[in-house]
């Protein structure tokens, strides 16, 4: 009844047909390029979206509204076989960002990923020198650099942080 009254009043607006996956991706990439994102970041996002399109084709999915939790699980499983956990997490964030972009641009009306939680990837252990390696480096370094290397080794500071430190008393 309400629909009929809107139609008769001329105020009924058909909801937009959900956008195609490839169209939403193209629009999102164009937007990123216009925001002066680095070429490397855009290259990584394009690679992620190539896989999205591949998996969507395999599953017979055309519309962005069809990218749901099951799709994300399939994507995660595919990428987990070939990539590091941090890469998989970054890709899932990229997919979520694209869906949010599509919602903002009204390419879709409902969030197909509503409630999706992306677990943070475990931290990658960072390599460090052994005490013997530190001593070798300090023994072979010339005096102006010994204090600098000693400071880095025993404080855990980054090189850029050490540049600003006063090493005069070391």
TrEMBL record:
The record ties this protein, via Pfam families, to: Phage_int_SAM_5
Judging by the UniProt lineage, the source's domain of life is Bacteria
Which residue range or ranges hold the Core-binding (CB) domain? 19-103
DNA-binding keyword on record:
yes
- Could you tell me one molecular function GO term of this UniProt entry? DNA binding
Taxon lineage = Bacteria, Pseudomonadati, Planctomycetota, Planctomycetia, Pirellulales
Organism listed in the record: Lacipirellula limnantheis
Keyword annotations for this protein, in alphabetical order, are: DNA integration, DNA-binding
Q: Does the keyword DNA-binding apply?
A: yes
Q: Which named protein is this?
A: Core-binding (CB) domain-containing protein
InterPro entries (alphabetical): CB, DNA_brk_join_enz, Integrase_recombinase_N, SAM-like_dom
Q: GO:BP terms for this protein?
A: DNA integration
């Amino acid at each position: 009844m309400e629909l009929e009254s809107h139609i008769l009043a001329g105020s009924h607006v058909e909801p937009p047909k959900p956008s195609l996956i490839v169209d939403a991706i193209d629009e999102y990439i164009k937007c990123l390029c216009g925001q002066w994102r680095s070429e490397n970041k855009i290259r990584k996002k394009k690679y992620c979206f190539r896989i999205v399109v591949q998996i969507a084709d395999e599953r017979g999915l055309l519309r962005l509204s069809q990218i749901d939790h099951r799709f994300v699980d399939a994507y995660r499983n595919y990428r987990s076989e070939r990539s590091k956990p941090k890469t998989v997490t970054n890709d899932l964030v990229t997919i979520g960002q694209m869906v949010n972009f599509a919602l903002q641009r009204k390419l879709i009306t409902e969030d197909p990923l509503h409630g999706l939680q992306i677990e943070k990837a475990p931290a990658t252990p960072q390599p460090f020198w052994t005490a013997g390696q530190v001593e070798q480096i300090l023994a072979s370094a010339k005096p102006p650099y010994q204090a600098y290397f000693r400071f880095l080794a025993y404080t855990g500071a980054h090189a850029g942080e050490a540049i600003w430190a006063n090493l005069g008393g070391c």
